[in-house]
Amino acid sequence: MASRKEGTGSSATSSSSTTGTAGKGKGKGGPGDSAVKQVQIDGLVVLKIIKHYQEEGQVTEVVQGVLLGLVVEDWLEITNCFPFPQHTEDDADFDEAQYQMEMMRSLRHVNIDHLHVGWYQSTYYGSFVTQALLDSQFSYQHAIEESAILIYDPIKTAQGSLSLKANRLTPKLMEVCKEKDFSPEALKKANITFEYMFEEVPIVIKNSHLINVLMWELEKKSAVADKHELLSLSSSNHLGKNLQLLMDRVDEMSPDIVKYNTYMRNTSKQQQQKHQYQQRRQQENTQRQSREGPLLPEEDLSKLFKPPQPPARMDSLLIAGQINTYCQNIKEFTAQNLGKLFMAQALQEYNN
Amino acid sequence: MSRFFTTGSDSESESSLSGEELVTKPVGGNYGKQPLLLSEDEEDTKRVVRSAKDKRFEELTNLIRTIRNAMKIRDVTKCLEEFELLGKAYGKAKSIVDKEGVPRFYIRILADLEDYLNELWEDKEGKKKMNKNNAKALSTLRQKIRKYNRDFESHITSYKQNPEQSADEDAEKNEEDSEGSSDEDEDEDGVSAATFLKKKSDMGDFLPEVVPESLGEKEKTQTARVGRGIIYRAPTTDEDKKAAEKKREDKAKKKHDRKSKRLDEEEEDNEGGEWERVRGGVPLVKEKPKMFAKGTEITHAVVIKKLNEILQARGKKGTDRAAQIELLQLLVQIAAENNLGEGVIVKIKFNIIASLYDYNPNLATYMKPEMWGKCLDCINELMDILFANPNIFVGENILEESENLHNADQPLRVRGCILTLVERMDEEFTKIMQNTDPHSQEYVEHLKDEAQVCAIIERVQRYLEEKGTTEEVCRIYLLRILHTYYKFDYKAHQRQLTPPEGSSKSEQDQAENEGEDSAVLMERLCKYIYAKDRTDRIRTCAILCHIYHHALHSRWYQARDLMLMSHLQDNIQHADPPVQILYNRTMVQLGICAFRQGLTKDAHNALLDIQSSGRAKELLGQGLLLRSLQERNQEQEKVERRRQVPFHLHINLELLECVYLVSAMLLEIPYMAAHESDARRRMISKQFHHQLRVGERQPLLGPPESMREHVVAASKAMKMGDWKTCHSFIINEKMNGKVWDLFPEADKVRTMLVRKIQEESLRTYLFTYSSVYDSISMETLSDMFELDLPTVHSIISKMIINEELMASLDQPTQTVVMHRTEPTAQQNLALQLAEKLGSLVENNERVFDHKQGTYGGYFRDQKDGYRKNEGYMRRGGYRQQQSQTAY
Q1: How confident is the model at residue A87 (pLDDT cuts 50, 70, 90)?
Q2: Between A243, A244, A257, which is nearest B843 by CB?
Q3: Exposed end of chain B (fewer CB within 10 Å): N or C?
Q4: pLDDT tens-digit profile of A262-304?
């Protein structure tokens, strides 16, 4: 349910250019029961994010910043943003909260919306489903219910299609995170799987009419070649990278599963032992009863059979979520590329 | 030591003779038989003569003697031990004692011991200095003897009142002593000596004449034995001075005996004359303890006594070791001047060398150069003497008592082991080399001594080959091997190079100068050791040295076979560190040898262990690592320092590393190219990869400076198939200076290397770029890599056979046609992913199985389905039960 703004300037024709809101939510966890149904982003914010990455981001390093805006009914409007400064070793005592407050106060002075509505982050080939992201988004959403995170994929953008996604944690995941209990049972009870961890909110990019006019003008002036990045047929690099990353996650997944497996086995084994023990006690007791002897005292079974420490399942959830993202990425990418290839073939045949 | 007092018995018995009557003893007639008895079966006679009394008393006297000795060296612990034994022995002898009365000598020792102990007890200072054991023993012994002596109180008091007991007792005791002492040694002439002595005491005036004849042959041994028997007597009752005087007398007399025997003109001397001379000598000696008095006649006895005197000071605190050496040297001079014979000189020389070794108080320090020089000279002189006098027997198993220092008629026997001396010398040499700065002129100076050391070892070897046992020969051979194996035989090498028909006269000279090739020498020595040695260590060392020597001289196959045959690789970890170091050195040399032969793989394998640890320096014993300095304490460090190999034996570490890296490069680069996309490829050489990574991390790549940078740069060039650049990085002025010129046949190695680089570059090129070719002409390849066509052909064929290259050869056009069946990068990745997912699914299924309660999964045969299901049901039920009980 990627609500994506494809082709930055060109298609931003109207004030509410919403392209690609096609995919509906992947199920029950959709935006339906969430506080935010739609995210509207100001063009300025998009440009500021892109600029921020270009200026400071390196290939694998991410850049982050704060989103500002306001909430209108179930719409989240993001009207401005500012970046977090890049960390360096020599200012370790830098106070981030202080900086944010300072920044927001300054912005308020120039009459800019100063409601903190979330944050944004760049990503490397869509690898953003991490513990750190989860934690900070949780704290955001805990404090301001409507806040969202914008994920910006610079690599895809460079290939010609702006990639910006708004993500929120599902209420279920919020519950789980509040409980801080990631044991298999708790997750099972919460009925949460990797698919329902994040909900994606459709986004709309809105520009003022004046800007739209400018865009029209610019488009007419721009050379033809600039528009055709989109049609590049090369796929191997991108695909290879994605595969590599996917493989890394799969590698991480395997031991996790093994760990879980061992846990399961241990539990069942212990259950068996416990059961045997109980049976034996019962037998003994019946025997004693028949002999009218005193019964065996009750013993604390949980002390005798300490259940094995259940492994935290959050990691595997996250990994699975990440794998899911990669798969989506690859799927989209290959679909597009196939289309392009067919097109190229047709063109070639036509030329011949 | 006992020899001091050797003739004490004689003189004292004489003194007692002169005054008093004596117990009658075998008559003179017996005397004539003496020589006969000597040569004949002694065992019988022994049995005949020994009576129960003799036996018991002999036992007692022996014990007493040891106690006396222990007293002299203030070894109270020993005293205590012996005293207890003495008590037991006395108990055994009780029946005899009852018959005969308590023997006087027994009382004497008891009294003396008590006095001695009391004296020690009073001496607070001395007690403080005593070590714990001794102090403890002292108190115990003191109590014991007090208690014990209560039984003998009357005897002791009477003895103390009249220490100069009536002579008859003395005499009796004397007999017993001499008898006992002579019997006690299981020597040939036990009885004869005893009887002889008795006779001596009988004969009184005859003595002087008797001595030369009867003692003629066995004089030394006899006197020694007799002396032992008598010792206890010397310092006993009389106050010190008297005792000392007596000793002098004894000595003098003995001296006289010897002299009289040796020098004919003295033979006629009678007793009186003898006495006079001795008396004259005594006071002088006392006044001037260091040297012989003027006018003292220098005889064997004097010299030996002096020698013993000096040696006694050895090892004691406060002894001036330098002065001791001086004294000993003076003694040698005196001995030489007085023409005392080679035996004595040899004996003293042995002692000089020993004291030279002793000069340094602890093991870590090394000899001073002048000491070292002296030591070498001394050993050389000793060897001169030994070679000049083949009749001198030297051995460590010769007892002091059985030494024969000056009896020219018999072979001279001297205690001492030339082999040990030489081994010690070798150790000292190593120590000196270890402690000299290897980059100084001093080191070179010291190294010059190596020739001398080798010469000495060679001489000793020759000597031992004649006289030594096989074990000794093995040891000296090993020493020789250790001084040979690491030296490259340039002359033999030269000879090998020049064809034999061109052998000019000069070459013959050379051959003469040189003796045998070191290879032949090594072969001979090692084979002897292989055949004869019984200790494993010597053989192991010899094998390792042999391999090293082979490897050094590029006899790769011999070296390798020997290494494999010895099976040393399996059990070397049980060997002691020095042997392990030798093993490491050998492996390294083996690797370098393989490299010279162009066997990169073997070279790499041999060097892998040493290099991969990153502690090559330590493993080869060529230096300590600073890193581990904190981990070991001072003691360990000292031990490790002692294990270091002297600098002139070092293997160049840079050469070693370079050889390793280059062979790793030749192996790894084509391998990397071939398995570029294979995720499961392993590294052949971690260290090489590490170097590559270090090279990659450089932000700015300048021209290579160090050897490693050169290799890394070359590897990069090779990765691209650019052999010319690779070549220029590996072989250039800098690398020549640093590495390649260190090889004996540098040019050969270089040509080998170039060829290897060409070949491996070709392979790398084909691996890397085969995907962009449909076909490629072999001629082009041969031009590109400057290899001839057949070589290119063979390399490509090999690659095709090994399925490294998916291609076929098109013979008529001489081209390689690529099949293009290799998967692309993406395909490869996809394949890997599929594999990983497979295992993931498998794991997941197992989890699923748990949930289902069935083991085995749902992909199992349908046939089993029913049973499984049953199991599942049962299990499920069981589970339910469980959960019920659990909650």
Answers
A1: low
A2: A257
A3: C
A4: 888 888 888 888 888 888 888 888 888 888 777 777 666 667 7
Mutation for testing the B interface, residue in A235, A243, A266, A274 having most B CBs under 10 Å: A243
Residues A70 and A199 in one domain: yes
pTM reported for the whole predicted model: 0.55
Domain with A270 in it: 233-284+308-351
Q: Evaluate whether residue A32 is within a structural domain.
A: no
Q: Within this chain, do residues A239 and A225 fall inside the same structural domain, yes or no? A: no
B496, B498, B504, B509: CA torsion to nearest 10: -30
A305 by DSSP, 3-state: which?
A: coil
How many Å apart are CA B200 and CA B130, to the nearest integer?
43
Does the predicted interface ipTM exceed a cut of 0.95?
A: no
Total number of domains in chain A:
2
Where a domain ends, among A195, A229, A263? A229
Question: How far does the CA of residue A347 sit from the closest CA of chain B (Å)?
Answer: 26
Distance of alpha carbon B188 from the chain centroid: 36
* Same domain? A278 vs A315: yes
Q: Is A20 contained in some domain?
A: no
- Contact check, Cβ <8 Å, A257/B830: no
Domain ranges of chain B: 53-162, 297-468, 652-818
DSSP-assigned states of every residue in B713-746: HHHHHHHTT-HHHHHHHHSSHHHHHHTGGGSTTH
Task: Compute the distance between CA of residue B691 and CA of residue B661 in angstroms, rounded to an integer.
Answer: 9
CA B568 to chain centre: 20
When the pLDDT of each residue in chain B is averaged and rounded to a whole number, the result is 71
A202 and A314 inside one domain: no
Nearest C-alpha neighbor of B613 from the set B584, B649, B651: B584
- B865/chain A closest Cα distance in angstroms: 22
- Nearest-angstrom CA–CA distance, B470 and B464: 9
Please check whether residue B778 is in contact with residue B793, taking contact to mean a CB–CB distance below 8 angstroms. yes
pLDDT tens readout for residues A25-44:
333 344 446 678 888 998 88
- Closest partner residue to A247 (CB to CB) among B824, B833, B850 is B833
pLDDT for position B387: 80
Reported as type and span, the H/E element at residue B256 is helix B240-262
Residues of A in contact with B847 (CB under 8 A): 257, 260-261, 264
Query: What is the structure's pLDDT at B878?
Result: 38
Confidence (pLDDT) at B187: 42
| Residues of chain B with C-beta less than 8 angstroms from the C-beta of A251 | 836
Is B223 in contact with B403 (CB distance < 8 Å)?
no
Mean pLDDT of the region A207-226: 83
Query: What does the pLDDT read at residue B801?
Result: 92
Contact between residue B474 and residue B538 where contact means Cβ atoms under 8 Å apart: yes
Mark whether A237 and A224 lie in a shared domain: no
* A184, A261: one domain: no
Q: Which residues of chain B have pLDDT under 70?
A: 1-52, 100, 124-130, 163-300, 313-321, 339-341, 360-364, 396-413, 497-516, 625-633, 677-681, 853-887
Query: Would you say residue A191 lies in a domain?
Result: yes
- Same structural domain, A183 and A224: yes
Residue showing tokens 């740069």: B713
Both A224 and A166 in one domain: the answer is: yes
Residue A33, domain member (yes or no):
no
Integer CA distances (angstroms), A173 to A32, A179, A192, B128, in order: 15, 10, 7, 84
Q: Where are the beta strands (DSSP E) in chain A?
A: 16-17, 38-42, 64-72, 75-83, 115-122, 148-152, 164-169, 198-201, 203-206
Instruction: Confirm if B286 and B240 have CB atoms less than 8 A apart.
Output: no
Which residues of chain A make contact with B831, given a CB cutoff of 8 A?
none
Chain B residues in contact with A244 (beta carbon < 8 A): 829
Q: Which residues of A touch B826 (CB under 8 A)?
A: 236, 239-240, 243
